[in-house]
TrEMBL record:
It is an enzyme of class 2 (transferase). Keywords: Cytoplasm, Glycosyltransferase, Purine salvage, Transferase. Converts the preformed base xanthine, a product of nucleic acid breakdown, to xanthosine 5'-monophosphate (XMP), so it can be reused for RNA or DNA synthesis. Homodimer. Pfam families: Pribosyltran. Xanthine binds at residues 20, 27, 156. Its main location: cytoplasm. It is found in: Cytoplasm. Belongs to the purine/pyrimidine phosphoribosyltransferase family. Xpt subfamily. 5-phospho-alpha-D-ribose 1-diphosphate binds at residues 128-132. This is Xanthine phosphoribosyltransferase.
């Protein structure tokens, strides 16, 4: 997605610990036209699989996931990181590590909104180590739903999350790929795959 690649080139900042700051387009401020195109790209890629639900994780996954769900015309379910008292039991839960806040994070999805018969596409903002998507895939498996595909806005190819998720045996679609990033070269980014 060329517009995304250009926005990352313009705004991406390398932070310590191998973190790419893209707060101006994905993680704090959103650019609606860019978000809409993300949704269109994911929807075009996944529509042939006939999903009936999009699943993501709060908070940064919600915008691209909603843009995708709008085009596919299916509901969007987002995993919560704290279980609210409104959430109906039984719930499906898994743990992941937060890359930007540190520490373990619990993810919760209620059986009220995910279960057998659901055909799910997962959308998130970053694919880095793959740990978060692995946790969400675990929740989907626990629920009895079928995972059809994974879509991430930005892949950090050098963290090799894609290879780690290969055993899930589903297509992985990303819109921009960070090949490497360092002080000398800056952020080396190409179209996703
Ligand atoms: O592939 P991984 O190594 O698991 O990294 C990707 C995850 O890390 C971020 O979550 P984080 O909890 O940092 O932030 P968020 O609250 O902005 O979604 C991001 O939103 C992805 O969900
Ligand atoms: O804002 C972010 N920048 C990153 O580099 C990253 N990796 C995983 N999750 C991330 N979030």
């Amino acid at each position: 997605m060329q517009a995304l690649v250009e926005a990352i080139r313009e705004q991406g900042v390398i932070l310590p610990g191998g973190i790419l700051k893209v707060d101006g387009l994905v993680n704090h401020q959103l650019l609606p036209h860019l978000t809409r195109e993300m949704g269109e790209r994911f929807a075009a890629g996944f529509a042939p699989l006939k999903p009936n639900k999009v699943v993501t994780i709060e908070v940064s996954g919600i915008a691209p996931a909603l843009a995708t769900a709008l085009v596919l015309n299916v509901p969007l379910v987002y995993a919560r990181k704290k279980k609210p008292i409104t959430m109906q039991e039984p719930t499906f839960t898994a743990q992941s590590l937060s890359r930007t806040k540190g520490g373990a994070v619990d993810l919760f999805v209620s059986s009220e909104y995910l279960g057998p018969g659901d055909r799910v596409v997962v959308i998130d903002d970053f694919l880095a180590s793959g740990g978060t998507l692995r946790a969400l895939a675990g929740i989907i498996a626990l629920s009895g739903a079928e995972l059809l595909g994974l879509g991430c806005v930005i892949e950090k190819g050098f963290e090799e999350g894609r290879a780690r998720l290969a055993d899930l045996n589903v297509p992985i679609l990303t819109l921009a790929n960070i090949v490497r990033m360092n002080e000398a070269e800056g952020v080396v980014v190409e179209a996703g795959r």
